[in-house]
TrEMBL record:
InterPro entries: ExoRNase_PH_dom1, ExoRNase_PH_dom2, ExoRNase_PH_dom2_sf, KH_dom_type_1_sf, NA-bd_OB-fold, PNPase, PNPase/RNase_PH_dom_sf, PNPase_PH_RNA-bd_bac/org-type
Occurrences of domain S1 motif (ranges): 665-736
Entry protein name: polyribonucleotide nucleotidyltransferase
Family of this protein: Belongs to the polyribonucleotide nucleotidyltransferase family.
The protein's enzyme class: transferase
Annotated EC: 2.7.7.8
Cellular component, GO annotation: cytosol; mitochondrion
Cross-referenced PROSITE patterns: KH_TYPE_1, S1
GO biological processes: mitochondrial mRNA catabolic process; mitochondrial RNA 3'-end processing
Keywords: Nucleotidyltransferase, RNA-binding, Transferase
Gene Ontology terms, MF aspect: 3'-5'-RNA exonuclease activity; polyribonucleotide nucleotidyltransferase activity; RNA binding
Length: 743
């Protein structure tokens, strides 16, 4: 793998010499080209569009271009966290389309836009400095899409460029690539078509010195060695993008702004806080009898007591800073205990799993159901099976960028407020729920058989949450699918790995010490440096999402985390197999699907006028009959009893009258029932659907209209039968072959 990049300037022609003198500097457009080892090129440019923004860059791969702007307020926010917002929007104009909604304009963000926004957010957030609490917005505007190259990688690299060129303090740049695995070879930035034959779809974001910042993707049970190879190659290829952005930044980047100095507490107050807090907090964390609620309650009691004493001793202190300092001390004590004793707050060793229990077939009317409990995380999963007509249809723009038109398997994740003993508004799904559901869906998609005859909707409702509910959804989802009798390729499970690390001066490349934690609690996620989620089967890996909170992770730690997660998911799968190990076959409420092949001439009889027969069958039995092609129909029934009833109705419709067998070449008496311009409609027996006798077959002479022969409704004459047309199923009749040839 190698990379070439070159810098060039494009100067637009102006109308006259004066305009050239005035605009020459403003119209210089710096561009930098990056060429990967597989010959694919990537281009970054700046200086032409949105020059009022703090930073702006346009990324292009193939004919797909995305403009990204970065703007940050100069006034310090009142929050104690980074108020970063990333908005990625797909525009219909970028693919030459008009929105099909009533207003004919872009409305709220789609699921694809929200998931891409989260992808970009996780790629750039770890590189902001710890005390940078200024409102910052990254806007990604898709300018053009060619339907070949995905715009998400373009957006990440353009966002990194915009931040690097701006005056916003940021410890970047980062580079991002998509990694595929086709025919045992790693492919960098595969096209949409190449991804269809790839066993892996992985996005790798890294910063300098081969430090991993973000991982997200899914796979078709890829083997661990191949997966680790893909991460290493992807991280190496990211360095080419980082080198190019750094060169662009040195030549055209703005000087970074000087931040306001943060007000700090006096040494006396800090010492008082430590003496009042450290030992009490340490005792709480060493008490392994605490659960989530009792531990949080005990910590809140300490916070309230310390705040009250500080108010009495230091009435002029800034209490927002005092509260933040208390949280910092609590976090440091929590982390120190892990390093000192290798024992976690619930008494587990670093590699131990929480207690796991599984239960299936909870409610008889459901097609499939399961309850998965891991510690204090509880997830209820249910499966509903329906016809292919219920498949999830994607909007046209998402179809073009992702290559997926519809999904016959999808997972809906719900996180109600009572899961964490809170109250809140219940309404449209939020970004977090959508992201967790999409990750769990990726972990299960590859185990669903491609030829399964039903649409599967898997719902995952979190009833209790104390960490890693998305991976619990993978485990519970697998159990529910087995309970629903879905012949999955192999069971899948998921687990989250945490990290506590020690390093100095933001140099995570040379960590002084670190600890990996298997199956993390919610508090370990909050206090830690990483939430590394991995799902897979016994054979390989199906999904990954690494939420890294420090400025990059060495490849050595990533490899250890993958190995730790692989070992843990194997143990979880063994526990799940004790509950249910193969698809259930003994339920009587499952839907039934079968193919029905009809001869062309019977289709009209089954359908009825305006499809009245199909509507009647659906209303009386709930059975849907949908046409697949000219002769094939799909019959979907909610259960076997409904299918039997529908089959009886269909047989009655198709055999309601005894149809005489007509002999090929036989002569029959025909009765005219209708006169048409192209011929006459005739019947050969009572109850027969009228058949057309064309003008060309009425007489030996050329006939322009039946009236020329004096034919009327009710007339009878002899016709010869030549069977049915093999395509249309229509009768082939002739009157003229029975007439004598004119002399």
């Amino acid at each position: 793998m190698f990379s070439r990049y070159k810098l060039k300037f494009i100067k637009k022609k102006c109308l006259n010499l004066q305009s050239i003198r005035c605009c020459s500097e403003a119209l210089k457009v710096p561009e930098i080209d990056i060429e990967f080892g597989n010959g694919k090129k990537f281009k970054l440019s700046t200086g032409k569009l949105a020059r009022f923004a703090d930073g702006c860059a346009v990324g292009t791969i193939g004919e797909t271009s995305v403009m990204v702007t970065a703007v940050s307020k100069t006034k310090l926010s009142s929050t104690n966290f980074l108020p970063l917002v990333v908005d990625y929007r797909q525009k219909s104009a970028s693919v030459g389309k008009i929105p099909t909604n009533f207003l004919r304009r872009e409305l709220g963000p789609t699921e694809q836009e929200i998931l891409t926004s989260r992808l970009i957010d996780r790629s750039i957030r770890p590189l902001f400095f710890e005390n940078y609490n200024y409102e910052t917005q990254i806007m990604c505007n898709m300018l053009a899409a060619d339907g070949v190259n995905n715009p998400d990688i373009v957006s990440i690299n353009a966002a990194s460029t915009a931040l690097s060129l701006s005056d916003i303090p940021w410890n970047g740049p980062v580079g991002a690539v998509r990694v595929g695995f086709i025919e045992n070879e790693v492919v960098i930035n595969p096209t949409r078509k190449e991804l269809q034959s790839s066993n892996l779809n992985l996005v790798v974001t890294a910063t300098k010195q081969n430090l991993v910042v973000m991982l997200e993707g899914h796979a078709n049970s890829i083997l661990q060695p191949d997966f680790l190879k893909a991460i290493r190659v992807g991280t190496k290829e990211c360095q080419h993008v980082i080198t190019a952005i750094t060169k662009l930044q040195k030549l055209f980047g703005k000087p970074k702004r000087v931040l306001e100095e943060h007000v700090e507490l006096t040494a006396g107050i800090l010492e008082a806080l430590r003496s009042l807090t450290q030992m009490r907090v340490r005792e709480i964390f060493k008490n392994h009898q605490h659960d989530k609620l009792s531990r949080d309650q005990a910590l809140n009691v300490v916070r309230a007591d310390v705040m009250e004493k500080i108010r009495a001793a230091y009435p002029d202190a800034d209490y927002s800073l005092v509260s933040e300092a208390i949280n910092t001390i609590i976090k440091q004590e929590f982390r120190d205990l892990v390093f000192e004793e290798d024992i976690r707050c619930d008494g587990r060793h670093l590699e131990d799993l929480r207690n796991i229990s599984c239960e299936v077939n909870l409610y008889k009317p459901l097609h499939g159901s399961a309850l998965f409990q891991r510690g204090q995380t509880q997830v209820l999963c249910t499966v509903a099976l329906d016809s292919h007509q219920s498949a999830l249809k994607l909007d046209s723009l998402s179809t073009l960028t992702s290559g997926v038109k519809e999904k016959n398997f999808f997972l809906h994740y719900e996180f109600p407020p009572f899961a964490t003993k809170e109250t809140g508004r219940v309404g449209p799904i939020g970004r977090r729920e959508m992201g967790h559901g999409a990750l769990a869906e990726k972990g299960l998609t590859s185990i669903i058989p491609s030829d399964y005859p039903f649409t599967i909707r898997l719902t995952s409702e979190v009833l209790e949450s104390n960490g890693s509910s998305s991976m619990a959804s993978v485990c519970g989802g697998t159990l529910a699918l087995l309970d629903a009798g879905v012949p999955i390729v192999a069971p899948a499970a998921g687990v989250a790995i945490g990290l506590f690390s020690k390093y100095s001066n933001n140099d995570t490349k040379h960590m002084e010490d670190y600890r990996l934690l298997t199956d993390i609690l919610g508090i370990e996620d909050y206090m830690g440096d990483m939430d590394f989620k991995l799902a897979g089967t016994k054979k390989g890996i199906t999904a990954i999402q690494a939420d890294i909170k420090i400025p990059g992770l060495p490849l050595k730690v990533v490899m250890e985390a993958v190995q730790r997660a692989t070992d843990a998911k194997s143990k979880i799968l063994d526990i799940m197999n004790n509950c249910i190990s193969k698809p259930r076959t003994d339920k009587d409420n499952w839907p039934v699907s079968q193919k029905l092949q009809l001869e062309p001439h019977k289709r009209a009889k089954l359908l009825g006028v305006g499809g009245i027969n199909l509507k009647k069958i659906f209303l009386e039995t709930g059975v849907q009959i949908n046409q697949i092609d000219d002769t094939m129909y799909e019959v979907f029934a909610p259960n076997q009893n409904a299918m039997d009833e529908a089959q009886e109705m269909m047989n009655n419709i198709l055999t309601s009258e005894k149809v005489p067998e007509l002999e090929f070449g036989g002569v029959y008496k025909a009765t005219i029932v209708e006169i048409r311009d192209i011929g006459v409609m005739v019947t050969l027996y009572s109850g027969m659907p009228p058949a057309l006798l064309h003008n060309s077959q009425l007489d030996q002479r050329k006939v322009a209209h039946p009236s020329a022969l004096g034919l009327e409704v009710g007339n009878e004459f002899q016709v010869k039968y030549f069977g049915r047309d093999p395509v249309s199923g229509l009768m082939r009749l002739s009157r003229k072959v029975l007439q004598a040839s004119p002399r």
